[in-house]
Amino acid sequence: MRSTLDAAALCKMADRGQITGAILDGPLAFDNAISKEAAQSKGIVSPVAGDPDILLVPDLEAGNMLGKQLTYLAQAASAGIVMGARVPMVLTSRADDASGRLASSAIANLLAHQRRQQGGRP
């Protein structure tokens, strides 16, 4: 699968120092990413299993599904940002409350500010 190759490539880039500032591991199935016990039961040794800060998904549809599951099954707070364009884009659900919309806007603003500080466009 393309997403599996992409995840492996990102991890290899991190191993080479091309991506810094984070610990990357993957591809990991959802259960292995969020549960150290699930990963251990399958013989997976991962520095992030059971304690991820970010779950990266391969496309918008997968991200939407994951976001809805976390929101409705785990009462997770959410913020939606799309990266890869010239500027960060806010992407919220019609069902998001004001706090989710505000969090998304704040994160997009922080990312744009950081990019400006680094000499790039917002």
TrEMBL record:
Residues 3-108 form the Phosphate acetyl/butaryl transferase domain. Pfam families: PTA_PTB. GO terms for molecular function: phosphate acetyltransferase activity. Its EC number is 2.3.1.8. It comes from the Bacteria. Keywords: Acyltransferase, Transferase. It is an enzyme of class 2 (transferase). PANTHER family: PHOSPHATE ACETYLTRANSFERASE (PTHR43356). This is Phosphate acetyltransferase. The gene is pta_4.
